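Why does residue order matter? Because the sequence determines the fold. Keep that principle in mind as you read this record.
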Amino acid sequence: MGFVEDFKKELIYSDLHSFEEKALLLFNYQSKCNSLYQSFVSALGKRTSHIKRTEEIPFLPISFFKTHKIVSADRSYPSFFESSGTTGNITSKLYHYDLPFYWQNTMKIFEHFFGELKGYSFFFLLPNYLERQHSSLVSMANFFWENSDRTFGGFFLYDFEKVKDELIKALHAKRGKVILWGVTFALLDFADQYGQNYEDLILFETGGMKGRGREPLKEEVHLVLREKLGVSRIHSEYGMTELFSQAYSQDSTIFSPASTMNIFIREPEDPLSVHSRVGERGGINVVDLANVDTCAFIETQDLGMLHSTGFEVLGRFDNSDIRGCNLMVH
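Structure:
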């Protein structure tokens, strides 16, 4: 097998020990085989042979995914994931040809944090995602559903009464754990209309207010959902169109990245300078080793801070576009 196939296989089937070694290997590959990234690195005056640490690797601004086809091999990319955006906005696209790898990677990440998919019943309340094509979240959710206990659950748009009735059946049956996974505005609407005590229900919220004003603080959303739905556990996902990996928060504001991810903080006044110091605010830069076929080194427009146990998302930089992933603005 070639480099790409070997690299992917190791990510899925092996425990990842030396993240930095893998990141440098992938950088060497992408700085040669990804023409846009190669031009970007060259424009910064960087020499690949001089880069010895992950912090020294150039991070591509995420806005490039809106204006360029970012791929790391001269081959056919038959499909793409596309960001939600708002009407009239240019959307980001992540071109891909290996959906099975994406699905396997997302499953490995979820099961690392929460256990086997087959032990869950999934209820997906993702109306704005289900109403468009090329959503990475819907692709992941559909794979989770196919590999779960499908006695109960499924995908729902705005039939909240049906969600309530089916949730009650699933919880009373006690076949396994029950997850209601939804965008913020849909979960809040459901809680307003059909709030009651859904004992043992686990909530996953993935952000998104669909043009309904500012994104509320995570703490505000969780407080309302706890009170109206009687749930004790609310988790969140940090994911975006441009990434093949996800991070999860487990009933807190701190996200734990997947083993294929690493988070760095860039200096607000110097976007080329990144660090791993705890407690300092700055821009979030992501290394996603699963982005083998595109670009693994991304400078996001998110504001964040590292903690000893993970990272926190604090909002957006000024003048950056509103996105559909889990961003709570402070």
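The first helix runs from residue 3 to 13.
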